[in-house]
Design goal:
Layout lengths: L25 H16 L3 E6 L5 H11 L5 E7 L5 H11 L9 H17 L3 E7 L6 H11 L2 E2 L2 E2 L1 E7 L2 H6 L5 H4 L2 E7 L4 H14 L7 E2 L1 H11 L3 H18 L3 E2 L1 H18 L2 H9 L12 H4 L17 E2 L19 E2 L1 H12 L15 H5 L10 H18 L6
Parallel strand pairs: 1-6, 1-7, 2-3, 3-6, 8-9, 10-11
Antiparallel strand pairs: 4-5
């Protein structure tokens, strides 16, 4: 609607993932580096987690778009809660294999033959699994079995798992130890900082032919960052509405007043869809779940003091590593944006394994499989606090539904 008014050739803030808009923030570049590092190893699983809307899918699509089809054949699937058989059939379908009238064993053998034939032709098979947190344990075991395939003594299939933070808790289960041992690189994708938020907005506008119309003033960028927490999809949601508002007002500058007005409108609209007041009373009435979540309407209507300069970077609480003996402990309270303390984990691992089993150094951010071994394990029984947190996550899933598919 507003593209013609601002002389743009496309919508800059679409909610659906689009690799054309890949933004090279520090965190996104590190996540991409972990994917490329894993690709170079030619085996195992590569894991990237991040909050809803953080940009996981865009990073995966960006890597897929860069692959030479003469050297790689890739299957890309987005999972629902798949069981063992449906997972195999979806993989076969993604590779373009016929499965009609075949039982599970026959489908599995067709996949094996396809992977082996591709390897003999000099093409490596890759499997990208998005929304991996939805996978069942049996489906994950099926992926592990496929990872055992070899041609001429070399691994024939490599899998990339993209999921929300709770997927790390799933992988920490004791019965998935064999799969964890095959994870060769992992990374948790955090939010953009203030400077990156401004650069991200300009980048998306420039991709669609922006000629500095409209202009986002500096204070408006700061408040956008504070309201969205630096999560790309939240930025897209807010900026898309800001562009529409500017078009309706025939304005060529987006100000702090515009941001406050539009964020309040979004909050009101979300409140009409979901009864947040009742939900927050239920959630906040329990110890350990205090405070509105950043995806609630209050988050979009956040009051920012006049003249507030914001912060130059987004800070997040750190999830302390847990010893492997603590896997059955109750889930501690962890805020939405988790930053794993890899340095502390490395020290714990060295103390446990000895210096002869040192951790490979991949640079500033290490993505070692053993990091998962020391993260939180859900266990078989959830505490009351954990159960309520899961209910809270379900509520947020409803909210995120109205913002489009998870990145």
């Amino acid at each position: 609607m507003y593209e013609e008014f601002f002389k743009l050739n496309d919508q800059p803030f679409r909610l659906s993932p689009d690799h054309r808009f890949f933004f090279q923030s520090g965190a996104h570049n590190r996540a991409l580096a972990h994917l490329k590092f894993g690709l170079d190893q030619k085996e195992g699983f590569i894991l990237v987690t991040g909050e809803v809307g953080a940009g996981k899918t865009t990073i995966g699509d960006h890597l897929l778009a860069s692959l030479n089809p003469r050297h790689f054949v890739a299957a890309n699937i987005v999972t629902s809660n798949l069981d063992q058989e449906n997972m195999i059939r979806m993989i076969a379908s993604s590779f373009g294999l016929t499965q009609e009238g075949l039982n599970r064993t026959s489908v599995f053998r067709n996949i094996e033959r396809f992977i082996a034939d591709s390897a003999r032709q000099g093409r490596r098979c890759l499997l990208f699994v998005d929304e991996a947190q939805n996978l069942s344990i049996t489906a994950l075991e099926e992926l592990r079995m496929l990872s055992n395939l070899q041609v001429n003594g070399q691994p024939a299939l490599q899998s990339f798992l993209l999921g929300q933070p709770q997927f790390r808790q799933t992988l920490a289960r004791k019965d998935l130890a064999q799969l964890r041992q095959r994870v060769i690189a992992s990374y948790h994708l955090g939010p953009l900082n203030l400077e990156e938020t401004g650069a991200y907005i300009c980048h998306r506008l420039e991709v669609v032919g922006w000629t500095k119309d409209p202009i986002f003033d500096e204070q408006a960028i700061e408040i956008i960052f504070q309201i969205t927490g630096g999560i790309p999809r939240r930025i897209n949601t807010l900026c898309n509405r800001l562009m529409l508002n500017a078009y309706l007002e025939e304005s060529h500058t987006i100000t702090t007043a515009d941001v406050r007005k539009v964020s309040a409108e979004i909050a009101e609209e979300l409140g009409q869809v979901v009864d947040f007041e009742s939900a927050q009373k239920d959630l906040n009435g329990t110890d350990g779940l205090a405070g509105p979540d950043s995806t609630s309407p209050d988050h979009f209507a956040a009051e920012v003091p006049a003249g507030s300069s914001g912060s130059s970077s987004a800070t997040s609480p750190t999830a302390a590593p847990m010893a492997s003996d603590d896997f059955d402990a109750p889930i501690p309270h962890v805020e939405d944006q988790v930053v794993f303390d890899l340095e502390a984990v490395d020290e714990a691992m060295r103390a446990k394994q000895g210096p002869e089993h040192g951790i490979p150094d991949y640079g500033e951010d290490r993505g070692d499989a053993e990091v998962i071994d020391l993260t939180i394990h859900a266990g078989e029984e959830l505490s009351l606090e954990a159960e309520l947190r899961l209910k809270k996550r379900a509520l947020h899933t409803v909210i995120d539904f109205f913002g489009g598919r998870a990145s």
